[in-house]
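Before relying on records like the one below, remember that each one covers exactly one chain. Contacts with other chains, cofactors or solvent are not represented anywhere in the record.
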Amino acid sequence: MATVKIKGMSCQHCVASVSKALSAIPGISHVKVDLTKGEASYEGDIDIGKAKETIEKIGFQVE
């Protein structure tokens, strides 16, 4: 399971947005976004750069 640290999430709407964006990437499954930890984890055989790019496109910073 890959994990990405995210800055800028402040509510459940943010969590839903990140979850929806990551789930839309072909090859990603089991997306879990944790607001308290500020991270998203997922299963999938994709380049982590693609996940980071997708999250940044919807307005969040990725560490």
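The radius of gyration is 10 Å.
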